[in-house]
Design brief:
alpha/beta, 169 residues, elongated
Length: 169
């Protein structure tokens, strides 16, 4: 049995000139396809998955950048600015109070890093971390139409055992 099995219908016979005394037998010439190396065949199979994976990774990066971009910019009126609040290793913002001692609303999460849109002015920001008994207070200035950063609240290194003990764990 031959090792080569042609795909599709058999090719048409090629007539040969008759040789004196020999019967006329049609000769069939098979169509030979160039063999595909295994690596190239595997590349063809994985290429669509690589493209789909690349597109998915790109979409994930774009979504992450949009979600984590500091501040959404000022609203149409342009009468607010954005403040970026951060702490080491982390903190919960307890309050933001303006110069007239009016507390500002903390919509959504209050954990650092945090961006908040505020009217222009000077603010006192109180941050708490379970490793310290007292909150840290930082002051920051907000300018309309701009993004500014509050001073970094540094709570220092956290002793995990102290935090666990504080919560009875």
């Amino acid at each position: 049995e031959p090792k080569f099995k042609p795909k599709g219908p058999a090719p048409a016979p090629v007539p040969r000139p008759a040789v004196a005394g020999a019967p006329a037998v049609p000769v069939v010439v098979p169509k030979v396809e160039k063999p595909v190396p295994p690596a190239a065949a595997a590349h063809r199979r994985t290429a669509p998955w690589m493209v789909i994976g690349g597109v998915a990774a790109l979409v994930a990066i774009v979504v992450a950048v949009i979600a984590l971009w500091p501040g959404k910019g000022p609203p149409a009126g342009g009468n607010t600015g954005t403040i970026v609040i951060n702490a080491v290793p982390w903190a919960q913002v307890e309050s933001i109070v303006n110069a007239q001692s009016s507390p500002q609303d903390l919509a959504g999460s209050s954990y650092t890093p945090l961006t908040v849109a505020l009217p222009p002015g000077r603010y006192r920001i109180s941050l708490r971390n379970p490793s310290k008994s007292e909150p840290l207070v930082v002051e920051a200035e907000v300018t309309a139409g701009e993004t500014s950063r509050a001073p970094l609240a540094d709570f220092g290194a956290i002793e995990v055992s102290a935090v666990l003990e504080k919560y009875g764990l």
